[in-house]
C-alpha cells in the first residue's frame, strides 16, 4: 500500500478549514490541523472518526511548533488568518503578525519540494474599472489592512515556486464553523429573520463562490498541481458578478416576502467594487457545482438550526 500524502492546515478549524479538512480526509489524505480555536469552536469533532486526522492546539506564529509539524507535510495549506476588514482593523498588529508574518515564517521552514496552496481574497483588486474584468494580471490595489496583509502574503507564497494561490470571491454557504458576517450569509439571515435589509451603495459589485466549491478547488489543484503551480487563480462564479441590489433579487426568488430598501444617504464601510474573470481557473477543467440560488436555499435550511447571531468574526 502506498504512503498517504500528508497535509498540514493552519487554521483548519475555521469557516473554510472545517469543510476542507473533512473533504481531504474523505479523499484519502492524512491531515494535521494546527489551530488556536479562537472562537471555542467544535467544528472538527466529526473529523475525529478518521484515524489519519491529527489536531494540534497552538498558534501559527509559534516557529518552534511550526517546525515540529511542517517537516513531515507533503502539502501545506496556510488558512490561519484574521479574516475580514473589521476584525483586522480592530487588532491591526495581530492581523499583520498572523496574516502576513506567520506565512513568511512558515515558508522559510519549507523545503523546495513541499507544495503550498494559499487562499487569499479577490478584495485585493479594491475598486475596479467600470465594466472592466479583473484578471489575475490586473494590478492589485487593496483598500483595507486585511487586503494588504493577504496581498503581501500571497507575493511571498508565489516566490516559493512550488506553490499557487486562490483569490477567493466572497464566500457563502453553510459550514460547521458558521459565519454570519459574510455578505450573502448576512443578507439571507436578515431576509429570513427580519424580512428586510437596508442597502448602502447598492450598485457596488462583487463576485461570489460557495464554500463547498472552495474546498473542491483545493482538491482539484492538488490533482493538477504540476500544470497549475506558480500562478494565482481567481475563484468565483462567472454568472455572479452582482451588485448588492441584484443579490437581493436572487434572495427574493427563494424568500418572496423579503424587502430591501436603498438608503439615499450613508455609505458602506466596505468600498470594494469590481467584476472578476475566473477564466484562468475554468481553463484547468474546474467547474463550480453550487449556484448562488442553490446556496441560498441551503442557507435558509441551515438557519432553521441556528438560534443566534453569534456565528461571526466580529
Helix content: 25-40%
Biggest sheet architecture: 7 strands, parallel
Fourth-tier CATH superfamily name of the domain at 6-173 and 208-236? NAD(P)-binding Rossmann-like Domain
Instruction: From the 3D structure, determine the CATH topology of the domain at 6-173 and 208-236.
Output: Rossmann fold
- Topology order in helix (H) and strand (E) letters: EHEEHEHHEEHEEHEEHHEEHEEHH
Radius of gyration: 19 Å
Oligomer description: single chain
Widest sheet: strand ordering: 3-2-1-4-5-7-11
What does it look like?
- The chain has about 325 residues and is an alpha/beta fold.
- The chain has a domain at about 5-175 and about 210-235: NAD(P)-binding Rossmann-like Domain (Rossmann fold).
- It is built from eleven helices and 14 strands.
- Strand 1, helix 1 and strand 2 (about 30-35) form a beta-alpha-beta unit.
- It starts with 5 loop residues before the first strand and ends in an 11-residue tail after the last helix.
- The model has no long low-confidence stretch (mean pLDDT about 95).
Provide the descriptors you would attach to this structure in a database record.
35% helix; alpha/beta; 314 residues; Rossmann fold; 3-stranded mixed beta sheet; 7-stranded parallel beta sheet
Structure, briefly:
With 314 residues, the chain is α/β, with parallel strands linked by helices. It contains eleven helices and 14 strands. The strands form four sheets. The chain has a seven-stranded parallel β-sheet, sandwiched between helices.
